[in-house]
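Title: Prediction job returns without error message
Component: structure pipeline
Severity: low
Priority: P3
Assignee: unassigned

Description:
Job completed but the reporter wants confirmation the result is attached to the right record. Sequence as submitted:
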Amino acid sequence: MIKVKIINRKKSMIVVTGATGHLGNVLTRKLLENGENLKVVARSSTDLKPLEGLNVEIVEGDIQDVNSLINAFHGAEIVYHLAGLVSILPDTDGRLNQVNVIGTRNVVDACLKTGVKRLIYTSSIHALKEPPHGIPIDETCSFEPQYSRGGYDQSKARASLEVLRGVDKGLDAVLVCPSGVIGPYDYRVSQMGQLFVNFLKGNQRAYIDGAYDFVDVRDVADGIILASKYGRSGETYILSGETIEVHELMLYLEEITGMRAPRFKMPLWFVKAVSKFSPIYYKFSKSKPLFTSYSIDVLNSNCKISSKKARNELGFSPRPLKESIKDSVEWFK
């Protein structure tokens, strides 16, 4: 294992954006376990339940307000930037661009203005240009927004380029790209979390063909901390886990819950046709989106993802995926 850079972070001030999100609150817990002096940036309207009982300083701020970030970042040694929007729906109102791209630009500018020693940005595997099926997705794949699958992918690719722009200006920054994140402490209920909830309630009546790479949220949080310690400035590290087919996932959920998995497989052509109208349905039903044109494309995309670089340079070591699925189900119960 190559370990090329270590920052002595003990008792230095660390700032986290997006600390109330799924990955953000798990990272916050990990940092506190390590004895870190922690400050989190949150909007006044943010539900702080994921941070309940945690010994953190909460500073009011918004990544869309660069002045609030400058105020929050003063004296910070390291900033972990996780705040952002995740969506499998089209970016019809420009919110993904405003929050993910402009927000990240503001974080970078605030880091440069306040002299933050290191920025760790959580991007996404979807931000990378996807090669054809069979060719591994690794760090040789670049951030090219014009080749993105949808609004979310494009916004994360453009946000990643904003971080690299900061590196060109002298900012010490590292990027990490997780694959599909699952695991406990999913307070806001992610898309995969919603699937688990639906299954537990007996509402998962059918499934579709597809597969994807999923990784435990706790292992991603560990990988982010490892990136802050050993990551090389300007470099990207993929944090991925294991690939699982949708049908295999359903059968494993049946095994660990004792509840019958759906046996009906919806034809892909039918799902793709119906998915064109799903944004309208989800808008009026106010339910969490699961099957959209974007999510169906992802489940049938190239999911041959390599975390070899992160394993070799950072010591990243994700746990077995079935353990993560089981822990997710237990947490939601």
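Comment from assignee: result matches the submitted record. The radius of gyration is 19 Å.
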